[in-house]
Design a protein that fits this description.
Helix content: over 70%
Radius of gyration: 16 Å
Distance between the termini: 21 Å
Strand content: under 5%
Order of helices and strands: HHHHH
Largest sheet: none
Oligomer: single chain
Structural class: mainly alpha
Length: 126
């Protein structure tokens, strides 16, 4: 289950990071992303984070506590960033986009909780 959390989170972050990194200027103007360099920096960070998650999830042994902590922290911080932004926009945001963003925040939160539950505690190793 822990590996699934890593892989599913990577499936969210890697395509999103690549989309933001290679975001065309016309689409950025339509979506309202300004300045464009900020979207490219965020896209690069998300793409690297997705590659890190793939590497952490595909190790032969159990992922280490640092990697699981990074997964949980990254997912919860992303969800905590998305929810207030969607709430602030309110009715000005298209309903389909609002549902996608809230659903993404929910999936990231569930994956973070699944990673916490699936990570073996030190007591179970004794």
């Amino acid at each position: 289950m822990l590996r699934a959390s890593f892989w599913l989170t990577a499936v969210v972050f890697l395509p999103l990071g690549l989309l933001l990194y290679f975001l065309p200027a016309t689409l950025a103007g339509a979506v309202g992303v300004s300045p464009l360099w900020l979207a490219r920096v965020c896209g690069g960070i998300l793409a690297v984070w997705g590659v890190f998650l793939i590497a952490s999830g595909s190790t032969s042994s159990q992922p280490q506590g640092t990697a699981v902590g990074g997964l949980v922290a990254g997912n919860l911080l992303s969800a905590a960033t998305l929810v207030p932004a969607v709430i602030r926009q309110g009715e000005g945001m298209p309903p389909a986009l609002r549902a996608i963003l809230l659903g993404s925040a929910g999936v990231l939160t569930l994956l973070a909780v699944a990673a916490l539950i699936a990570f073996p505690s030190r007591r179970s190793r004794l």
